[in-house]
What does this fold into?
Amino acid sequence: MMDFPLLSILILLPIIGGGLLLFCKQNQILARQLALVISVVTMMLSFLLYIGFDNTSHQMQFVERLSWIATFNIEYYLGIDGFSMPLMILTTISTVLVVIAGWQVIQDRAAQYMAAFLIMEGLMLGVFAALDAILFYLFFESMLIPLFLVIGIWGGPNRVYATIKFFLYTFFGSVFLLIALLYLQFQAGSFSILDF
It folds into this structure.
């Protein structure tokens, strides 16, 4: 199971599924059903993390490591430990609950709503699994986009104010996060989070 790219599949399945949902704008019932199937399959796959996890080891598990941008020593580097594994499982369970909760409540643009949450799920799983700082940063920043859209489109009466405030806080936080990651890379000589 360690050679099977389970983490990549868990990340890509909801992202690709969310992209497919954007083509179901005319058929809201199909969009809801497809979102539920994708979220349940992702949740079931996430249980394999628990089944295959070795509690006796302190090493990262389900590791996937490929050179990505060799010039800057940036890698596609994924893995989980005892902290990230339960967070990934909880994320997949929560997404199923979000899809079920939005089944009747979201009547306007349901396909886009479900797509935003599926894409956000995949990106959140990427955040929990990333072991390269730049990969982590890209997953984290990308995750804010569907969240920004959910707040701006389906938020309450003050959604415009909340969206602007959300953008300002995350923008400044992101700048400081990038500066901190670059500083850590300078100190460690690598973008590997384990080296930090």
